[in-house]
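Good morning C.,

I know you're traveling, so I'll keep this short. The sequence:
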Amino acid sequence: MKAEFPKSPSEAELAAKTMVQIWAEAVVRQAAVARANRKKDDAAFRNYERGETWSPDFEDELGATWRTRWASEHILVWSAHQLERWAIRLADLQGTEQPEENKKLKAVRDALEHLDEADLTETTATAPTPQRKNDPKGRALRNDFPNESMSLGLGGRKLFDLLDPEELDKTALKILRQIRKEVDLERVRKENAEVSAYVDMLMER
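The tokens, ready to paste straight into the viewer:
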């Protein structure tokens, strides 16, 4: 009878775990970037409304901070989506329970990916009128957003009307802590390899 120790992960599992770590770290970094850009944009807009800051170029500067914020929040959504996909793949490889899909994340990601198909105004993106039964264009906006429309303006606590950015950050941090724990366990397993062989030899005597 041999002593039982945790099996070494497969190459596929190691690759998937690396991708999970890549995207979890990306979410944490990007959440910080988006948070800083959000504060800068909100402050600039408040100053603009109050007339506290003005220069011939200030409206251009305000537009630039808004565009930077938009892009950083879009990248955060994409990073969180990649993290979720790889976390599901890793769970499948490990034979463990898959994490529950974040339906709001999927809705926002899908809406952003197909934003060029929406009916646009300066401030909103609305699901286009279906041209045929089960027309896929605008599906996310039509099915998951209030009034089938997403605001193109930024503000408030939500990303693109639906997502809490701090929850995305917390999820990524939780995954990183779990990975660190698993790495520590794997280190212990390797350090105990010689002990394992010796125990097996004793138990076979």
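Safe travels,
E.
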